[in-house]
Amino acid sequence: MSAAATHPLPTANALEAVLRQKLQPTVLEVIDESSAHAGHAGANAEGYGTHFRVRIASPLFEGKPRVARHRLVYDALQVFIAQGLHAIAIEVL
């Protein structure tokens, strides 16, 4: 059984809501790039919900190296992995 069959596919709005709640960003843009990954690993037939780009700035990032900043974003979005999220490109601003 696929992840989409048991959970709805993640949306940019859902990722954005979780990131706003957990990281209190001052800048946030979440883009679903799934349709550009058709035929790639982790892509689905629906063309959404698998590959996202996140551009984010947060006061919680202050004083942390880039890897730690990325880890905060990954940890916040962990719930979406079971829903079919395959890849996240993170741009920390």
Task: Write a structural description.
The model is unreliable at 1-5 (pLDDT under 50). Helix 2 (12-23) packs across helix 3 (66-77). The chain is built from 3 helices and 3 strands. It has helices spanning 3-6, 12-23, 66-77; strands at 27-32, 51-57, 87-92. Helices cover 30% and strands 20% of the residues. The chain has a 3-stranded mixed beta sheet, with helices on one face. By secondary structure, it is α+β, with helices and mostly antiparallel strands. The N and C termini lie far apart (38 Å).
Pick out its properties.
3 helices; 3-stranded mixed β-sheet; alpha+beta; 93 residues
What is this structure, in a nutshell?
With 93 residues, the protein is an alpha+beta fold.
Strand-helix topology:
Elements: H1 3-6, H2 12-23, E1 27-32, E2 51-57, H3 66-77, E3 87-92
Helix pairs in contact: 2-3
Global mean pLDDT: 86
Element-by-element helix/strand order: HHEEHE
- Gyration radius from CA atoms, angstroms: 13 Å
What is the share of helical residues? 25-40%
By helix and strand content, what is the structural category?
Answer: alpha+beta
What can be said about the biggest beta sheet?
A: 3 strands, mixed
Number of strands: 3
